[in-house]
Design goal:
heterodimer; A: 275 residues; mainly alpha; MetI-like fold; B: 292 residues; two-stranded antiparallel sheet; 2 strands; globular; ABC transporter (chain B); membrane (chain B)
Chain lengths: 275, 292
């Protein structure tokens, strides 16, 4: 009797989870492959003709290949800001963990603020205009670095505490310069937490909607999340294309998730525990 | 002859490592945050700022729809945070117990955390359509008249909050799973020998010992809830009327309308709200932890 129980609860849990957590995704996928009139009924019927490619091409062609441009922009922002983020937060996390100075206290308070406080949007826009970075990719990339620095640094700081200091001393005795100790000895050892950082932050930045909405207006600067937002008003009569767009935007995180499930889970929990 | 070389007296951990990060963070986050305190006291068109004292705040608190936004922010944050904590803990208990397909279920619950908030917002907006949406169509076949989830002003904010919980409960569950894993099985062993029921075990062992995780989940989801913008914007734009406006959407609307000073005052109110709610909570928790 006891051996049956895990299966019964498991089966019930699976059924409930299927309805609650799977159904919305099935719904998205179904609408995305329907014709315009079938999709407008918003129901769960299977499509009469599967129009996957037709809808895919139509979505990409819409508004002068806006989605292709958006993929390019989003990818550029994500790759560039994550790269800078990794380098800078590893450096800060390393020195914060290793060398206790007054600056640590300052840095800790700054990090805590960065995790908690929402950015002051309009003053930031004013400032970006002042230094000529408003509506530019560079500006957007630096903003993403500034806003996500706290979280990455905390992940690095806690991981670096697991690396023995003896290692730094050995390198020092061997005549390595401080810079070399970090880049040649420490940074390679940080690979696990670097992978975590890359995965968690690229998903966050790729999915970000609010910051591009404020700091990156303009048709030529569109990001994938903004295409969704724009298409929402444009495609109220073409649900098939709207949902194809949602499907396409969901695929990158899905792929990342399949490959890096373990790192995401580790990063989310350790980041949360520290946060 | 391993005399200390002059170089080793200098720290091998160079403070200049802070500098690049400090510049980016200082210029793009700290400067705007601090200057927002000043700009919130001005009538501001991005080029000239005229000092008007507390007029923006006065206006904010005298407009009923802006005060409503403030109230909604609190309701939204408390609702989402409470539901995420309760559901997250129950799911975590279920998903750490010995059940079939446990790993797959964990994956399933967690996946929405990673998906585009705007995409989810649009999907649920469509599913919550009052007449054609599958939620109400399903309810109808069961003989229950479905409400206007997003069109009923009394309900819209809570409908969005439910979707927020749907999307975010996976993270809460994950944190609780990590917290539950840290509880030694000996406690349960001892309790079983003493004849404690499952319910007693939950309330007397699990709940107290999982408290660090609870604090994290509550803090994170409260901060998230207070700052929440994108889901609300995707689903209702603050409507119908102003019934689901929160501070973050008010900030955006005032910005769009060109009221930069007022928008920044909204930001300052949001800072204050977060500080007033989160700081005592964090301090209280840290003190309790030291005492124990």
């Amino acid at each position: 009797m006891r051996s049956v129980r895990p299966y019964v609860t498991g089966a019930i849990a699976l059924a409930v989870a299927a309805v609650i957590f799977v159904m919305p995704f099935v719904f998205v996928a179904l609408q995305a492959v329907k014709s315009k009139s079938e999709a407008s009924r918003l129901d769960f019927e299977l499509p009469e003709h599967w129009l996957f490619w037709d809808n895919l091409i139509a979505v990409f062609k819409a508004r002068d290949y806006q989605l292709a441009l958006a993929y390019f922009n989003s990818t550029l922002i994500t790759v560039a800001s994550v790269t800078i983020l990794i380098l800078l937060s590893a450096m800060v996390g390393y020195v914060m963990q290793r060398r206790k100075t007054v600056w640590n206290r300052v840095a800790s308070i700054a990090l805590f603020m960065g995790l908690m406080m929402p950015p002051a949007v309009v003053p930031t826009i004013g400032l970006l205009q002042e230094i000529g970075l408003f509506k530019t990719m560079t500006g957007m990339i630096l903003i993403q670095v500034a806003y996500n620095l706290s979280f990455s640094t905390l992940l690095y700081r806690s991981f670096i505490s697991t690396i023995p200091r003896d290692l730094d001393e050995v390198a020092l005795i061997d005549g390595a310069k401080p810079r070399q100790i970090f880049f040649r000895v420490i940074l390679p050892l940080l690979k696990p937490v670097t992978v975590t950082n890359i995965v968690v932050q690229s998903i966050a930045i790729f999915n970000d909607f609010t910051n591009p909405l404020y700091y990156l207006p303009g048709k030529e600067n569109v990001t994938v999340q903004l295409t969704l937002y724009n298409f929402q008003s444009m495609y109220t009569s073409q649900y098939n294309l709207l949902f194809m767009n949602i499907l396409l935007v969901t695929i990158p995180p899905l792929v990342v998730f399949i490959f890096f499930n373990r790192q995401i889970v580790a990063g989310m929990t350790s980041g949360a525990v520290k946060g | 002859m391993t005399e200390t070389r002059p170089r080793s007296r200098k720290s091998p951990y160079p403070l200049w490592f802070f500098i690049p990060a400090a510049i980016i963070y200082g210029v793009l986050f700290l400067v705007p945050t601090v200057s927002s305190l000043w700009f919130s006291l001005t009538r501001w068109d991005l080029s000239t700022a005229e000092f008007i004292g507390l007029e923006n705040f006065q206006q904010f608190f005298s407009e009923p729809f802006l005060v409503k936004g403030l109230l909604n922010t609190l309701i939204y944050a408390v609702t989402t945070s409470g539901l995420k904590t309760v559901c997250g803990l129950l799911l975590a208990v279920l998903l750490t117990s010995n059940i079939f397909a446990r790993g797959f279920l964990r994956t399933l619950v967690f996946f929405p955390v990673l998906v585009s908030t705007i995409g989810i917002g649009i999907t649920f907006t469509v599913m919550m359509h009052p007449t054609r949406g599958i939620i109400n169509v399903t309810l109808e076949t069961l003989g229950i008249p479905g409400p206007g989830w997003l069109t009923n002003p009394a309900l819209a904010l809570f409908s969005v909050a439910l979707v927020d919980v749907w999307k975010g409960v996976g993270l809460a569950t994950l944190i609780f799973i990590a917290g539950l894993a840290a509880i030694s099985p000996d406690y349960y062993e001892a309790a079983r020998i003493d004849g404690a029921t499952r319910l007693q075990q939950f309330f007397r062992i699990t709940l107290p010992l999982v408290r660090p995780a609870t604090v994290i989940v509550v803090t994170l989801s409260l901060i998230g809830g207070l700052r929440s913008f994108d889901l609300i914007w995707a689903m209702t734009r603050g409507g119908p009327g102003f019934s689901s406006d929160v501070i973050a959407s008010v900030i955006y609307k005032q910005y769009q309308a060109g009221f930069y000073g007022l928008s920044t005052a909204g930001n300052v109110i949001l800072f204050a709200l977060i500080a007033v709610i989160i700081l005592p909570f964090t301090l209280w928790f840290n003190r309790r932890e030291v005492e124990e």
